[in-house]
Amino acid sequence: MICWVMYDIKDDRARTKISKACEKAGLNRVQYSVFLGTLEKSFLDELQIRIEELINAEKDSVYIFPMSKNELRETVLLGQAFDKKMITDEVKQLFM
After folding, report:
1. Parallel, antiparallel or unpaired: strands 34-38 and 61-67
2. Rounded CA gap, 24 and 73, in Å?
């Protein structure tokens, strides 16, 4: 499934660990605190658990949005946006 992960994390160390977890999961950074990519449901669940372990639920916010291929095709990109071709149907493996 295609998914977006967006976050606002106060703690620098936790923020770095979350960005590394997103990259290890095979997501692509499209903005500083925004990742996009294709993940199998089980890997998305693992990533969610990892993020929950790292955040302070009272101060931080994380959004994980699933998206269909059709919705991605309809996405409007303005300015220096990412290349939609970088998001494929390939499933990346998550190693934590």
Report:
1. unpaired
2. 25
d(Cα 89, Cα 3) in Å, to the nearest integer? 12
Q: Do 82 and 76 contact (CB within 8 A), yes or no?
A: no
Q: In the structure encoding, which two tokens stand for residue 19, read together?
A: 């960005």
Render pLDDT for 38-60 as a digit per residue (tens, 0 to 9).
Answer: 998 889 999 999 999 999 999 99
3-state SS, the chain, equals CEEEEEEECCCHHHHHHHHHHHHHCCCEEEECCEEEEECCHHHHHHHHHHHHHHCCCCCCEEEEEEECHHHHHCCCCCCCCCCHHHCCCCCCCCCC
Do 15 and 7 meet the contact criterion of CB atoms below 8 Å apart? yes
Query: Which residue carries 């101060």 as its tokens?
Result: 59
Domains of the chain: 2-69 (3.30.70.240)
* CA–CA separation, 10 and 69 (whole Å): 32
